[in-house]
Amino acid sequence: MTELRELYQEVILDHNKRPRNYGGVSECGSRAEGYNPLCGDRVSVGVSLADGVISDVRFEGAGCAISQASASTMTEALKGKGLDEARQICEEFHELVTSNSGTVDHLDESLMAFEGVREFPIRIKCATLPWHTFLAALAEPNAEVTTED
Known about the structure:
The protein is α+β, with helices and mostly antiparallel strands and 149 residues long. It has five helices and four strands. It has one domain: Sufe protein. Chain: A. Helices cover 46% and strands 21% of the residues. The chain has a four-stranded mixed β-sheet with strand order 3-2-1-4, with helices on one face.
């Protein structure tokens, strides 16, 4: 179990140090702003759609390693997915970090790195902020969300 935990920590650290799909949020078709007032995490998520498929998803922001790595892995996981599948992945990710009972059929290994977050309840909001912001961008362009909503 220790080796697996170390691998997951490496994934989170890598995505924090070298975030994927960072920047260019203003060039996307829809965007939203997210804020976690408990620890100061901020994230902007931009989404572009083409024929019901996520053609691009990008983020910008600042905050702890978990929030930034979560945003980075989220963008990789959702790009190229249809909206229904993307929403399913969001739901499964939330289940992964909040409970032990959810299915994770659609989650790739990089997302599984966040499984240990549920052991630290204060960090769950850090991990889920980008995901809630992504869903807000789909629902209402230029939306603003906080972890306290």
